[in-house]
Amino acid sequence: MCERTSSPLSSLPNSQLQLPPPSDAPTPTRKAYHPARALPFELNSHITIYFEESLYTQAFALLQSLVSCAAHANVNEPTFVPSAAQLALASTLTVHPASTTRTSSKERWSQADSALRLLRLVSRVVGPANAGFGHAFKFLRFKFGSTRNSGGQVLRNSERGEAVENRSRLEDGKIENQYAQGESLYSRAEDFWHVVGWAFNCSKLHPKRWERWVLWLDWMITVLEDDWRDREEVDSKGSLIWSYINQASGGSGRNRRMLRSIFANGTTKAVNEFREVFRNELKEPRKEDAERVKKREVDVDVEAEVYGDYLAKDEDEPSEDEANGTFFAKRTRTRDPSLRRVTSKASASSLNSAYDEGEQLSEDGPAVLGGSDSLRLRMRLLQLLSDVSIKLPDDFETGNELYTMFVEFIRPLPLATFQRVISPAAVPETFSIDAQTTLCEFLLTRSLLEAAAPATPEPYLRQSKMEECYLPFAATSHSVADNAKVSLCLETLLRHLFMAGKLTMRPALEFTIQEGIQNRCEKASDGVKKSASARRRDEIAWAWLLESGERLTDILGRLQP
Length: 561
Description:
Radius of gyration: 27 Å
Number of domains: 3
Strand content: under 5%
Region (Disordered): 1-32, 338-367
Structural class: mainly alpha
Number of strands: 6
Strand order of the largest sheet: 1-2
Largest sheet: 2 strands, parallel
Number of helices: 23
Order of helices and strands: EHHEHHHHEEHHHHHHHHEEHHHHHHHHH
């Protein structure tokens, strides 16, 4: 039997595997970070000048040197940290197309990599809270409403107070640089979830942009995880992930929009809702760009005042007004896809666009969500939301409500992707055991299992519960895929019980496993005539169903004395 005291999720019906950790399991400890120390005025001014003159290599080298000096010292010794404006600029340059996919300049690419190295270093040495990431990485969150006479978008009166506050933030340590103002990631994006949705759209449609977004998103999620772990027990509402949840747009549909961003997969609906963040983000480097790089290598003579084209303006870069004074009225704004009709077909010059109008995203495997890296990042975000729902059920969603929404988005996934989401192999890298078993039970009880399966108020996963309520039953439909998904969920739950040493060999277990395998195969054999394409899909689903049944039987074999 699987005994343990109640937990924050214990109120969820049929939802939670509660297993005591092994006695020799290490106790999770909080990371030790150095206290932060602001840069002296003169040094900060010096670095700001570097940024304003676009001398990013020198600025990042100096900042990395200052932060790394304390990396091996006593952890109680304070270390210098970049200002909020400098951190936000580094975050922007990490992914901005002008410093990555829209240029052939090795120097610009190197600067983007240096920016990311600095961010990782600050995260590791000082930590998200001490470094002030909550202030540095706050999205400006301006909302605009169109008016007939404005000729564009204007700020609503009800939001002018917030606009003034955010303008003040820009003035705090202001850097006169387009990538620190109008072209900043935190000015261009509506909120964090806009960035998440667009990044995951890129994982499906624009591989070159995804190569850059995946680096930023992996770092950002790590920051969110570390920050939550440090604040969970003492200041959960001061965490960065809570601020991104609390400040998310979408009104009453806020939480559902967050899940849509996590599951964005390049469909027309997803691209319409989560559009590109930066201006001309999908443009490829111009042919003249490579020639310009060569010209810089041979035509620069500072003493003779010959600068090649370093002082020439890139036609893709915004004007000074756009980058500074008027960006408030020109930034990207995503809206609910139901409010407009916009084609998501990429332009001919887009970076490796895999999208074609009318394309059906029907392929199976992790590729349906952009590949393995994309899937892992999505699951880590789901885990974060799950953690927040446990800690702040009154302010966010209860676990019951959140996992019901999880089911809505995960239930329709193709079999191979579905299996990757619920596989025990995902634990503990992306999903905790409790979160995964809760998800599997919700999938079974809220969507997949036939009505004949009895309900139970038992909140914990036990062998008796598996035998009575889950193992003998088929899916609610005759779909081969649905019956395979039922089998995969049961397999995951049974494996977790087995690995926890909470499964014993007895006739009831053997009988219900074999009965369930037979019932699901019979339910899927409906004899209905189907098209050739449907038959091919069913053949694949049958393979999943039969192989899962074999693995369930294999678990029985491992229990034999």
